[in-house]
Automatic annotation (TrEMBL):
Function: Catalyzes the interconversion of 2-phosphoglycerate and 3-phosphoglycerate.
Protein's organism: Methanococcus maripaludis X1
Name this polypeptide is given: 2,3-bisphosphoglycerate-independent phosphoglycerate mutase
Name of the encoding gene: apgM
GO molecular function, one term: phosphoglycerate mutase activity
Segments forming a coiled coil: none
Reactions performed catalytically: (2R)-2-phosphoglycerate = (2R)-3-phosphoglycerate
Keywords from the named record: Glycolysis, Isomerase
């Protein structure tokens, strides 16, 4: 048996004044059929009443306790952009920013500079004391920063003043340990070096000539220490892959050892193409036992407060599911359909509202739920579960769960 966990990012919502949600109103014949043929319930990816980030939610869905494995966004971002991180590394996400000579931020994204590969070379490979600096731009003004060396800690503040017109913050240790003190000192030194190297760099001289904001500073945030994490295959015995559009989710997948499949598409369409992803899922299932899928779009629409768009994205996802369910066998694949968190239109951010979830496949106890939405699946046989329950339930159905006791 094989398994798919299919995550519609930001799927859930709260009722509008007419009692509707994008999912409830969207035409989703395939989701509804899956609800009818499967076992349904509600799910909180992290915990009841907890507003999850996409990262912590996906860790939980993969069967990892986010409270012990999640140390911050940095490690997963760095992993997602292709840095081979090691346990103990300290990782950040970074912006290239524009600052004046007093380190006052004049543009947080350095005019959304597009090519920073020359600037990356100035910082990547530096050594400060006994610490190695790994620096990788991840498309334009974004980058990942990793510190590797003995005696480092992630118990430090970050540099992001969050507003233009404010000074890049000095890094401070958050506890009395010598590790935190050392790490803060290294990052402070790095920021000074970065300014010296980047401010006079030819790329920035050229931007000055063109009256464009210079990328003369890096602003690290989202610090975390790369955790010791048991690899997915070791934990489950399953060969796993991930199909996702965002670097953060790809980073989580890589961190646990899933192969990240970059989707070119059946007909050469780009990564964002829904149907290309659907084709890729079917193809990937031929070579893997397990796939984690993340589909973007609904979450962004939720953050923008765009009800109609969220509804349209969900309808597109239904078309994906049509292609997938027609090309896989219920006798061979268990399919979990849910989200990672709700992103209600009224909140324009993630909320703790539980998500509808359906588990579709052979030998599940089919319940009498006939519609897949926030108001229908609670009557289902899965009841109310957490994200970390999904993998054990799948493992049991697949005949892979170890017996607890005699
Ligand atoms: Zn999300
Ligand atoms: Zn979001």
């Amino acid at each position: 048996m094989k398994a798919v966990i299919f995550v519609v990012d930001g799927l859930g919502d709260r009722p509008d004044k007419n009692g509707n949600t994008p999912l409830k109103e969207a035409k989703t014949p395939v989701m509804d059929r899956m609800a009818k043929e499967g076992i349904c319930g509600l799910m909180n990816s992290v915990d009841i009443g907890v507003r999850p980030g996409s990262d912590t939610a996906h860790l939980a869905l993969l069967g990892y306790d986010p409270y012990t494995t999640y140390t911050g966004r940095g490690p997963f971002e760095a992993c997602g952009v292709g840095v081979t991180v090691k346990p103990g590394d300290i990782a950040f996400r970074c912006n290239f920013s524009s600052v004046d000579e007093n380190f006052i931020v004049t543009d947080r994204r350095a005019g959304r500079i597009e090519n920073t590969s020359e600037l990356e070379k100035e910082l990547d490979g530096l050594k400060i004391d006994d610490v190695e600096i790994i620096f990788k731009e991840s498309g334009g003004y974004r980058a990942a920063l990793v510190l590797r060396g003995p005696g480092l800690s992630d118990k430090i503040t970050d540099a992001d003043p969050k507003k233009e017109g404010k000074k890049v913050k000095e890094i401070h240790p958050l506890d009395d340990s010598k590790e935190a003190k050392k790490t803060a000192e290294i990052v402070n030194k790095l920021l000074k070096i970065a300014y010296e190297k980047l401010d006079k760099h030819p790329v920035n001289e050229e931007r000055r000539k063109q009256n464009l904001p210079v990328a003369n500073m890096i602003v690290p945030r989202g610090v975390g220490q790369v955790p010791e994490i048991m690899q997915f295959t070791e934990k489950t015995g399953l060969e796993g892959a991930c199909i996702a559009g965002t670097g953060l989710i790809k980073g989580i997948a890589k961190m646990v050892g899933l192969d990240v499949i970059d989707v070119e598409g059946c007909d050469g369409t780009p990564d964002s193409d829904f149907m290309a992803k659907a084709c890729a899922i079917v193809e990937t299932l031929e070579n893997y036992d397990f796939i984690l899928v993340n589909v973007k779009g609904a979450d962004e629409a939720g953050h923008d407060g765009n009800y109609e768009l969220k509804k349209q994205v969900i309808e597109k996802v239904d078309e994906m599911l049509d292609h997938i369910t027609k090309n896989i066998s219920k006798d061979e694949v268990y399919f979990v359909l849910s989200g990672d968190h709700s992103t209600p239109i009224e909140e324009m951010d993630h909320s703790a509202d539980p998500l509808p979830v359906v588990l579709w496949g052979k030998s599940v106890r089919v319940d009498d739920v006939e519609k897949f939405d926030e108001f229908s699946t609670y009557k289902g046989g899965l009841n109310w579960i957490k994200g970390v329950h999904i993998m054990p339930i799948l493992m049991d159905l697949m005949g892979l769960a170890k017996k607890y006791g005699a």
